Queue: 2 jobs
Job 1
Amino acid sequence: MPRLSCWFIRASLAYLVAGFTLGALMLTLKAVVRYDGVGLLMTPHVEFLLIGWTVQVTMGVAFWILPRFEGGTSRGAVGYAWLAFVLLNAGVILAGLGPVLGDAGFIRLAGQVAEAGAAVAFALHAWRRIRRASF
Ligand code: HEM
């Protein structure tokens, strides 16, 4: 497995654990006390699981498995994929923790812009690798 896939997949597993923990915490708080702070935990729960886990694990596996060039030795424009990794994780942290840090609006928006940038960067990397197999 390439090094970048290890980074993507390990980071996604960390978000899986964190996101499930927040979900379990919300469930417990809702069951045990009259808890109004669900909103504060909900944003990181959703960001961690939808983007940090599902999108990130997909990118990690896709980077590994999509068709390669030059007889299987090259994955093409790898810089875009690294950029996607950095932007995605910065985005999840900013968008997820924005409300916790007290500035829901600006920090969250910056995170979402970074997440969108990660999607564009990954698409730029992957586009040329999407092609029919030649047997
Ligand atoms: C990949 C897995 C998961 C994803 C993508 C996910 C996603 C979401 C989303 C999008 C919401 C917001 C729903 C809304 O806006 O009404 C939510 C809420 C919630 N999730 Fe998850 N979730 C996942 C796993 C879990 C797990 C494992 C738990 C518990 C252990 C959990 C507990 C909760 C709770 C308690 C809420 C708040 C429900 C409410 O009060 O309206 N989630 N989740």
Job 2
Amino acid sequence: MTVSKIKVALAGVGNCASALIQGLQYYCKCEKEEESTGLRFLYLGGLHPKDVQIVAAFDIDNRKVGKDLSEAIFAAPNNAPKIIEVSPSGFMVHKGPVMDGVGEYTKNVIQISNQPEENVSETLRETGAELLLNLLPSGAMEASKWYAEQALNANCAFVNATPAFIASDAAWCKRFEEAELPIVGDDLKDQVGATTLHKTLLKLLSMNGVRITETYQLDVGGGAESLDTLERTRDVKRTVKTRSVEASLPYKAEIVAGSMDYVDFLENRRDSYFWIRGLYFCKAPMQIDLKLSTVDAPNAGSVLFDVIRAVKIALDRKLKGAILPICVYAFKNPPQMVSLEVAEEMFADFVEEKT
Ligand SMILES: NC(=O)c1ccc[n+]([C@@H]2O[C@H](COP(=O)([O-])OP(=O)(O)OC[C@H]3O[C@@H](n4cnc5c(N)ncnc54)[C@H](O)[C@@H]3O)[C@@H](O)[C@H]2O)c1
């Protein structure tokens, strides 16, 4: 049976986009699970990564705009590792409006293109895009909302990988519902996620009767996104992650999670530090001091493939508004918080068409 391609447009051709497009090339020929190390689902709802087709992309940097997408993903300031040669996409990256895409800390890193701005919603319509994937910097809150508006204008589903409050905002969900389009978000979960690891560790300890007294989790990264976070979204990210970690304990403890710093020589690598202190039998003290090292952009790849395919399922079923099973499975700030176990169950039921 031939499956029609899932036509995806990208807002932002940064490190995350680079990992996704390299992943497309990397996994497209895999037919067996044992060949697809690193991908959680080779097939999801019968859909394979090779069924995903990128049809348009928008950016603002002159090293990316006007270049074939296969070239743009390797242009500076992107520093995600190159793991594979990518075949030409056959289209050029379009210029989008800058708006708040560049912050005080990233203005020396991003070189704004002087090419004319494209009509984004018209391009989405012309290319037949079904889904617009928002991969703008986390500080680009207004530009992210503007791209959500373009998705509505062009009859596209919207995926918000950034922490801008869109899918978690009832007013936006209502607008997508009225337009009979799916929306999912906000803030993509990583495959090897520091927040998920932190929550799982705390849950395990507290389930075994340990009383957690204090814990923190700190991140250090070297991508452009870490630099932007430092200036504009450090507080939002810290609030979202702390709230999420707090929900894993049945009592109050001193918790700080998701604080960030920027170290340029780490490039696209990220070090996550975990520190946990608690009391167990007869108040004996315990302490965990842990470091997790990952590469940032590939950490989004597997989850993005799941989200894209799940949204295609939602489109085929003509579902509209916030698609909760996808939001809770793949995003840190969904419209409604549920436990990891419930999120997994909801997503599996959704894919198997039990919901
Ligand atoms: N593991 C991950 O990488 C991960 C996980 C969860 C969430 N996210 C989120 O995904 C988003 C992208 O992350 P990234 O590491 O690729 O960031 P990045 O900084 O590498 O890429 C952002 C891209 O957007 C472009 N841009 C800026 N303003 C624009 C505008 N107005 N229109 C079009 N393009 C514009 C930049 O030039 C850049 O190419 C961030 O919001 C991040 O928080 C990433």
